Amino acid sequence: MNERPWLASYPADVPAEIDPGSCKSLVHLLRRSFAQYAQRPAFAYMGRTTSYAQWDRDSAALAAWLQQQGLKRGDRVAVMMPNVPQYPIAVAAILRAGLVVVNVNPLYTARELEHQLRDSGAAGIVILENFAHTLQQVDAAQRPRIVLVASLGEMLGFPLGTLVDFVVRHRKRLVPRFELPGHARFAAALAAGASLHLDEADPDPLDVAVLQYTGGTTGVSKGAVLSHRNLVANVLQSEAWNRPALHKKGAPQGQINTVCALPLYHIFAFTVVMLLSAHQGGMIILVPNPRDLPATIKELRRWPVHSFPAVNTLFNALLHHADFASVDWSHLLISLGGGMAVQEAVARQWLEKTGCPICEGYGLSETSPSAVCNPTDTDHFSGTIGLPIPSTEVAIVDDDGRALPLGQPGEVALRGPQVMRGYWQRDDDTARAFTADGYFRTGDIGVLDAQGYVKIVDRKKDMILVSGFNVFPNEVEDVAVSHPGVLEAAAVGVPDANSGEAVRLFVVRRDPQLTEEALKAFLAERLTGYKRPKSIVFRDELPKTPVGKILRRSLRDA
């Protein structure tokens, strides 16, 4: 569709293309790293590290255990955990057993979890016990046959007295009571699997590796089908793009430490942190709750930090914390901003205080996710999302999929080896998502300039982006109108200093006595935190088209 003008703007040591065939699958990638970096720490949690050799042993044991439960190649296994050591172990085990990872937000309500389990047909789930009560609320017929429950303390390896102290200090975080008949325990599965034979998978590049759920730009949440080739390609693309920063003077010659404050169940951290770090033999610094800034800063003090992918809100929150300067930022080489727009003021302050610029990038679940990024050796804030990364093509297209001239706004369309195979069991949605010549239509409106830089100017649909997470107005509205006191509802995104955007809900009441507090409480039981309206506005009527469609844009503009 275009002449790839971005190549002329590439840093000198970044190739135009990568070879996704150089690594057959994620299983191949992991096994190679397990062998090559066996003695290195793979991830750190609460001051303790797990080596690549231990990651290898634990994931092999769990993979063997999963196979013993009767799971067959291609079966889906959900993973519902925050950034804890069991997460990378479970993912590696699922892949090595020839199964498919289904990432699940652990803060989902039972309704949201049930949809994802039903849609994916998950045969198993690995879940942290803190969230097991949510699974209990799911219709028993929709629960996976195999339920594996993990706990925070089981992987810490502390002496008994220290473990007791850990439990006492976390009394406020006690696990809600749950009953899941027939569930197994993570630690017990590891112990049992250690003596079992693993028939290790050797996936084909086009085999499904991950179902990453997203709503795209509209409609119900659906699974982006990411193959082994998709994810391997994005790892190699990210590695190539990072070279200028990692090879500059003063860069460490040994291991790269990457902060993992983004949730691993989100595709940004899944690929750009976990898989990329594994490929490079790096160490992941697991941060389970980045909103706990004192604990996050305490963790950052423990290690030299070389790479820090995050969203604008976290960069901003850290900058304004009293203890920010207590972290040694002198080792920082890459600060990657994604998931939502990076604000210029935040980028400027981050550079002033750390000496490392924030490189804003862009991607989607459907693109594994990275597609466009600013050069990592930049020294300024460009206000764009950057250049297409190696082996990626960008076109700006009209409603009919035809390429538009440089500088003219249109829908951003992407093509490359990291672009998904399609949506899980949704052929019609898949067909609509692609142009005739194989470009994925992102739903975002952007402009491509003569130097190959892309700038996002608007969103084609009404999706709301809260701290990097997609919120789909239809879902919020459907839940709201299920309240007996609500006649009509419309959800829109409004600017928010903390999360980029926040949900505002406009409501026409059926019950004039319905209050904002009562409706918020109702929604809180049915929507995870980032989807909940920050404000509710009651109106006598909502603006509509002649055929009765609610005009969200009119509400948003007002």
Runs in which pLDDT lies below 50 for 5 or more consecutive residues are: 158-172
Shape: globular
Rounded mean pLDDT is 92
Tell me the number of helical segments per DSSP (H or I, 4 or more residues long): 16
Q: What is the CATH-assigned architecture of the largest domain? A: 3-Layer(aba) Sandwich
What does it look like?
The chain is α/β, with parallel strands linked by helices. The chain has three domains: 1-20 and 226-461, Rossmann fold (3-Layer(aba) Sandwich), CATH 3.40.50; 26-203, Rossmann fold (3-Layer(aba) Sandwich), CATH 3.40.50.980; 464-557, GMP Synthetase, Chain A, domain 3, CATH 3.30.300. Helix content is 30%, strand content 23%. It is built from 16 helices and 26 strands. The protein has an eight-stranded mixed sheet, with helices on both faces. Strands 12-13-14-15-16 form a five-stranded mixed sheet. Strand 6, helix 6 (160-169) and strand 7 form a beta-alpha-beta unit. The radius of gyration is 23 Å and the shape is globular. The relative contact order is 0.11. Mean pLDDT is 92; it is low at 158-172.
Topology:
Layout: H1 26-36, E1 41-45, E2 48-51, H2 52-68, E3 76-80, H3 86-96, E4 100-103, H4 110-120, E5 124-128, H5 132-137, E6 146-150, H6 160-169, E7 184-185, H7 186-193, E8 208-214, E9 222-227, H8 228-246, E10 257-260, H9 267-280, E11 283-286, H10 293-302, E12 307-310, H11 312-319, E13 334-337, H12 344-354, E14 358-363, E15 370-373, E16 387-388, E17 393-397, E18 410-415, E19 422-423, H13 427-433, E20 440-448, E21 454-459, E22 464-466, E23 469-471, H14 473-481, E24 486-496, E25 500-509, H15 516-524, E26 535-538, H16 552-557
Parallel strand pairs: 1-11, 3-4, 3-5, 4-8, 5-6, 6-7, 10-11, 12-13, 13-14, 25-26
Antiparallel strand pairs: 1-2, 8-9, 9-19, 14-15, 15-16, 17-18, 18-20, 20-21, 22-23, 24-25
